[in-house]
Every structure is written in structure tokens, then in C-alpha cells.
Backbone:
């Protein structure tokens, strides 16, 4: 597993986490470059299919991050997001995927440092877990 | 396979343009833009682009209502299936229900490295055996659990009921810990590559399991194993639907049922009925339960109306109208319970019942149950 660099797809809400990632950048906070950020308008719009497609496309981990419960611009986005994540976890568990491959976080605009920490933690964790078992299909195709 | 091959394979060139298919098609009754005849005509005139870009190609229910009516014996459902695979090659995927989660899960299951946790629901009250020569196919049920939890529908309850029935018959079936999706939805939405991979995975596991018979509680899985797998893989065992299995066993074992006083009506799933011709076995099972009165709907048996969506593709307002019509027929029989033998029929009907329907024609509410659950309730001690 030496030299394995996990790929993380992060769905970040436009109003909080995306801005937090921006803040981490402008504040020169260092975090690993293993993450590809997908900006979404609200964490509540992350349909389970987005996450399944990310795994289909060879992601080793997926992060869904958005506003804190009371901060949502659309009132109850994080509640919807939690419901979707709950369903997803059950599906991914049956598929035999480890829990740590899907992470749900609430990171507000001012928490650039938190964003960097979450990514660091995820990358360390995924390096231990190794490549996603769902990825094998892709490698077999190549 | 190109369009010419499909035309040869399904004998589309015999088409007389009589339009019987369109006149009997349940979708065409509601969606005037959908016409099986037009689709065939476009194919025969060689308009491959028109055919492939036509979103209506994914509207077909592949329910086999049209094919028996065709004087030229054109196999329209298979034609649609093959045409969809050309469409997929051209980047047209149709619009899948539940945002395509079920198709995506099927694709994910093609990975050889996964170790699924698909038997965690299995509690100690059920007896299964590693050495059994009968296999109970669990299929997508563990995945349906989270996806359809909002519909208060549990596909695993159907599997539990099937297990209970088999146990009471003195059979301890085998369950596979790492079986894959049967590939039905992939095949009928045109994703042949995924289907082939899944079929190979399943065939390998079944051969290793050394079973003589596979019992299905889902007609879609049954159809796929019975008619589609032999074209790609060799299984080396018999397949049976639970209703057939029960009908066969009832004669031998003299099963005891307790009385259940209910009026029921039966929905023939298209895969079990028109695709495989199994009409009598479920009715025989229902009639052998004392107290059960079976009232047939206006359209039943070969004429029965489809539940409105198949292979979880293209579920639209027309599908919902079709379901409302079928539910009205069920309600008109005065039955207490609508019995079906397919978990997918159940999800679609339950989904339709969450909708109020049109103002002048509200969607009726009726209790809906799988055949396996009814039998499991009736079987056993008084």
C-alpha cells in the first residue's frame, strides 16, 4: 500500500464549507491535495446518486460538508442532508464499504482550519484503509 | 449489435404496420406520443438516429402485452431492449427512477473485490443450512430497505416470510453471502456490459454452492435467471418462483393453513405472468388457504395491467395514471387486500398511493401485500 494516495470527492455547500475551503486557502493553511471539491448550493441537495457515482468513478472517500444546523440559507438543508446520508450509510454498509469512506461534516465559513483538519484526518484514515474495493472494476477496465 | 442485427433477431421486418401493438399498449393509452408502431417504423426505415435519440424508447414497460397480439410475431420488448443498448452506446440512458440509484448499485456490484454485508437481517429464528441443495435468492432486498423505507415497505419481510415458509416445510435453504444483483434492470435499460459481469459473478458463486434448485421471491430475478442467463452463462440447476415451489409442495406435504377471513385480489406481475406464463401457481396457493376469497380484477391473467414501471426506468406521470387505474380496478373488486408476487409491483403501487391522484379521480387506497407474507401468516399453528 506504499505510495497510495487516496482520492476524495468533497461536496461542499456554497455558503459555508466552500467559503471555509477558500478561507483555508487565503490563510495559507496547509492540507493534502487529495481532495476534489464539488461546489453545491446546499448540502441538502446532495442526492445519494452523487455519492454512488463518485464511488463508481473511483473515489476512495466522499465528504459531504455544509452549514451548521441553524445556519442554512435554505432553512433545513442540513436536516435533508442527514436523512440522505443516513440512507447512504445503510446502502454502503450492505455493499461492504467501510464507514469512514463517507464522512459528513458541518463546517461554517469561518472554520477554514477545521476544513483543513478534516481533510488531513480523512487522508490519513484512507491511507490506512487502502483503495476502495469498488474501484477494482475501474482498474479491470483499464 | 447494430440496428440491422436487431431487426433480424426480433423479426421486425415482418411488421404489417397494423398498429395492434399501439392500440393495446398500456402506455400509449395515456401517452399519445408513445407508439410502438412508430418506433418499429423508424427502425425499418433505417432512421437509427431518430430511434436512438427518441426519449420515448425508454417509456416501454417491456410488459409483453403487445407481443402476443402481433400477427407477425414481432418481439417488441426484446427489440426495445436491444435498441436501448444502442441508445446507451450513443449516450442516451433514459431517465431512471430514484435518480438511478438502483442502476448505480448494480454497476458497483460488478466489482469483484466487494465483500457485502447482506445477511445481517438473518436472525436465529430462521434456519439456514450450508449443505442444502435449495438456494433462496435474496436479490436486491437488502438494498431496497433504505431506499424504500419512506414507503413503509420492507422487501426483506418478503424474504423472511419465504424463509419461514420453507423452514415450516422442513427445508433449510442455503443463502449466498455475496450474491450480486441479478442484472435485470441493467439488461432492460440497455447496459449489457454490467449485466454480463453480474451474470458471471452469480454463475460462479452458484456453481461453487453446488445447489440443485434456486427459489426466487422476485419474478424479475426469476425471469433473468430462467430466460436471460442461459444465453450468457451456464448455471447447471433448476430455477423456480416461490409460488410454483409452494404449489408443488402443497400437494406433497399436505400443508396445514389456519383460516384467514379475507377477500383478496391478485396482481399478475408482468415478469411472472406474460413473460413466463405462471398464472395458475399463485392462484392455486391463494385458493388453498381457507377463508381466502379470490376476486379477480376486470383485467387479470394474460390481460392484467402492468404496475406502470419496470427496471426502474422512466417513471413519469403516465406511469402514475396507469397505477391509479390498476388500483381502481383492485378497489372495485371490493377486496380487502391486493396480493402481488413481485416486490417491485409493491413499491410502485405503494409509491402511487402516496399521491392523491387527480381531483376527479383520486388514487384509491388499498392494503397491499406479497403472496409470501400472506402464506407465512396463514401457515403453521392455529
Residues:
Amino acid at each position: 500500500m506504499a505510495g497510495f494516495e487516496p482520492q476524495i470527492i468533497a461536496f461542499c455547500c456554497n455558503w459555508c464549507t466552500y467559503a471555509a475551503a477558500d478561507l483555508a486557502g487565503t490563510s495559507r493553511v496547509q492540507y493534502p491535495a487529495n481532495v476534489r471539491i464539488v461546489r453545491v448550493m446546499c448540502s441538502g441537495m446532495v442526492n445519494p446518486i452523487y455519492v454512488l457515482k463518485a464511488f463508481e468513478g473511483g473515489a476512495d472517500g466522499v465528504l459531504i460538508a455544509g452549514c451548521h444546523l441553524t445556519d442554512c440559507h435554505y432553512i433545513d438543508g442540513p436536516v435533508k442532508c442527514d436523512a440522505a446520508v443516513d440512507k447512504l450509510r445503510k446502502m454502503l454498509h450492505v455493499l461492504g464499504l467501510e464507514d469512514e469512506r463517507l464522512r459528513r461534516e458541518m463546517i461554517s465559513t469561518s472554520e477554514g482550519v477545521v476544513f483543513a483538519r478534516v481533510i488531513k484526518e480523512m487522508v490519513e484514515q484512507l491511507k490506512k484503509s487502502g483503495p476502495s474495493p469498488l474501484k477494482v472494476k475501474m482498474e479491470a477496465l483499464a | 449489435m447494430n440496428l440491422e442485427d436487431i431487426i433480424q433477431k426480433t423479426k421486425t421486418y415482418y411488421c404489417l404496420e397494423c398498429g395492434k401493438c399501439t392500440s393495446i399498449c398500456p402506455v400509449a393509452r395515456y401517452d399519445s406520443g408513445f407508439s410502438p408502431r412508430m418506433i418499429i417504423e423508424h427502425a425499418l426505415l433505417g432512421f437509427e438516429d431518430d430511434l436512438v435519440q427518441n426519449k420515448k424508447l425508454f417509456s416501454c414497460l417491456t410488459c409483453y402485452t403487445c407481443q402476443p397480439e402481433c400477427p407477425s410475431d414481432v418481439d417488441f420488448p426484446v427489440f426495445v431492449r436491444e435498441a436501448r443498448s444502442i441508445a446507451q452506446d450513443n449516450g442516451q440512458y433514459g431517465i431512471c427512477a430514484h435518480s438511478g440509484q438502483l442502476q448505480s448499485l448494480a454497476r458497483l456490484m460488478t466489482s469483484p473485490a466487494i465483500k457485502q454485508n447482506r445477511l445481517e437481517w438473518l436472525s436465529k429464528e430462521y434456519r439456514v443450512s450450508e449443505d442444502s441443495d435449495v438456494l433462496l435468492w435474496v436479490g436486491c432486498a437488502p438494498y431496497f430497505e433504505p431506499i424504500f423505507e419512506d414507503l413503509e415497505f420492507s422487501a426483506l419481510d418478503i424474504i423472511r416470510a419465504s424463509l419461514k415458509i420453507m423452514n415450516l416445510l422442513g427445508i433449510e435453504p442455503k443463502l449466498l453471502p455475496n450474491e450480486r444483483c441479478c442484472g435485470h434492470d441493467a439488461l432492460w435499460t440497455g447496459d449489457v456490459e454490467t449485466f454480463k459481469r453480474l451474470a458471471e459473478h452469480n454463475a460462479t458463486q452458484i456453481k461453487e454452492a453446488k445447489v440443485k434448485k434456486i427459489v426466487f421471491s422476485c419474478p424479475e430475478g426469476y425471469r433473468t435467471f430462467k430466460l436471460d442467463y442461459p444465453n450468457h452463462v451456464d448455471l447447471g440447476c433448476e430455477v423456480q418462483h416461490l409460488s410454483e415451489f409452494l404449489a408443488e409442495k402443497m400437494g406433497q406435504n399436505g400443508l396445514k393453513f389456519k383460516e384467514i377471513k379475507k377477500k383478496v385480489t391478485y396482481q399478475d406481475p408482468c415478469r411472472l405472468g406474460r413473460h413466463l406464463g405462471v398464472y395458475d401457481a399463485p392462484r392455486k396457493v391463494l385458493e388453498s388457504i381457507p377463508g381466502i376469497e379470490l376476486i379477480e380484477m376486470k383485467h387479470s391473467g394474460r390481460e392484467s395491467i402492468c404496475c406502470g414501471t419496470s427496471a426502474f426506468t422512466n417513471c413519469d406521470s403516465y406511469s402514475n395514471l396507469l397505477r391509479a387505474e390498476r388500483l381502481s380496478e383492485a378497489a372495485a373488486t371490493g377486496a380487502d387486500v391486493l396480493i402481488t408476487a413481485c416486490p417491485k409491483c409493491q413499491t410502485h403501487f405503494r409509491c402511487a398511493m402516496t399521491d392523491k391522484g387527480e381531483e376527479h379521480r383520486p388514487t384509491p387506497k388499498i392494503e397491499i401485500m406479497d403472496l409470501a407474507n400472506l402464506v407465512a401468516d396463514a401457515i403453521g399453528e392455529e
Summary: The longest helix of chain B spans residues 192-209. Chain B has 18 helices and seven strands. The interface with chain A takes residues 99-101, 104-105, 107-118, 120, 142-143, 145-147, 149 of chain B (CB under 8 Å).
